[in-house]
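Good morning N.,

You mentioned wanting to compare the apo and holo forms, so I went ahead and generated the holo version with flavin-adenine dinucleotide. This is what I fed in:
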Amino acid sequence: MAQDFPDTIIIIGAGVFGLSTALAVARHHPSTKVTVIDRHTPPVQDGTSVDTSKILRPDYVDKVYEKLADKAQALIKNDPELQPHYFERGFTFCTDGKDGEMNTLWEQMFDNIKVTQPAAKWNELKDPGTVYRHLHGEDSDSTPTSELAGPRMWMKGYTSKRCATVNAEGMIKVYYDRCCQQPSINFVLGTPVDRLLYGADSCVDGVVLEDGRALRAQTTVLATGAWSSRLVNLDHQMHANAVGIAYIKLSPEEYEKYKDIACHTNLVTGVNLFTPLGGYLKILRRTAGLRNTVTLKDPKDPSKTCQASYPLTKMDDPTQTLSAEMEQSIRDEMREILPQFANHPFAQTKFCWLEQTTNGEFLICPHPKHNNLHLATGGSLHGWKFLPLLGEFVVDSISGKLEDVLVRKWSWESKTDAKQNKFGFMTPGEPREFQQVIGHLSQL
Ligand SMILES: Cc1cc2nc3c(=O)[nH]c(=O)nc-3n(C[C@H](O)[C@H](O)[C@H](O)COP(=O)(O)OP(=O)(O)OC[C@H]3O[C@@H](n4cnc5c(N)ncnc54)[C@H](O)[C@@H]3O)c2cc1C
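and this is what came out, ligand included:
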């Protein structure tokens, strides 16, 4: 049912969810006063939304996400300020070809693109040699099996040419600058929100910052991503998870050779290599999840505590690095698919934290227990690509005008059944504790 739009809104969090929402409110309700609060100034360096690169990939089996991702990509591609950060180089999806959930997903995705896209938009890579030559050039030879640490995993694939890589930090900067130009948007940066401010009947009246300042608004939007469990009890709807990332500095010659390659991912192993940007090759490994379970102040009753997974980023702990085990597993796989870089030093490593809902669907909905609190989060390893649309969804949700199909997908209630997050290609299995896999640099 349509509802009156609030005169004042606080948005906590200036990542893709928060900035997109601020702009959409300014566009549709210019008289509404918007206050965006963040721990840091955007682009927030340890925020999930900020990195050298993200991928725009409409290749979903889910028809709703496929259509929305297609629409969002067209908006980004045709936006003159975002265009310089947009590189349409394609995305190659690979598999080991053995029976299993991720191989089934690969087959569904490939079947889908064959019927929805013209042949010019994709090409099949039928065997490991073709996958390798597609990446390294027609005259290249794949690594002999005897030199691999285990069985060959990049057995076949297909390239979806419509996918693109973007400079995420560059685009976030454009969005932040746009927000700053809006007379109705005000930023409060540098001091985290300590807690929500509750009024009568568990109604949220605003926020209290760490320095004690109280800010009030008719509606508060929680766009705090992986950090959300500090401010609301998530009742296990969503967990903070980490993904390990390594960067390799390429020589000018290497960069020239590889700068136009497609992103490549192996859905079974979780390794993802990106189209190089700014002279660096980025490689990450998705897993079933890495959680940093800690004791936090209970968001509703500060006299109590609760257990939740909470981010620990390189800004919190500059000594953190990938564990020897994780580094080895990435290098072992590089020996198959990127052998010439397998022994290159990692110029940088980090863990990127994400907010993973139980089923990979976003959380864009009113909070079921607290009036005037709206959730705009749950990106679950695939939310970035919807940048221009996220705010539209949040505004529609606040107004009670969100399409029924999206209300059902993104509601609090839909998060009760735990399922593998196939939208974000998380690999199957049980999450591990972050502290067991993190390494530390001994000297800084
Ligand atoms: C490794 C990795 C790769 C990914 N790759 C892709 C991809 O290729 N394509 C894609 O579509 N998606 C991708 N995703 C998913 C996508 O990046 C996320 O869905 C999206 O960025 C989440 O945005 P957000 O706004 O929720 O979170 P964030 O960007 O983290 O924003 C949350 C903000 O809230 C602020 N905040 C938190 N707590 C407080 C507080 N108490 N007070 C004040 N401020 C606070 C934080 O500082 C932060 O800036 C990837 C995710 C990861 C982790």
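The chain has ten helices and 26 strands.

Happy to go through it together on a call whenever suits you.

Best,
F.
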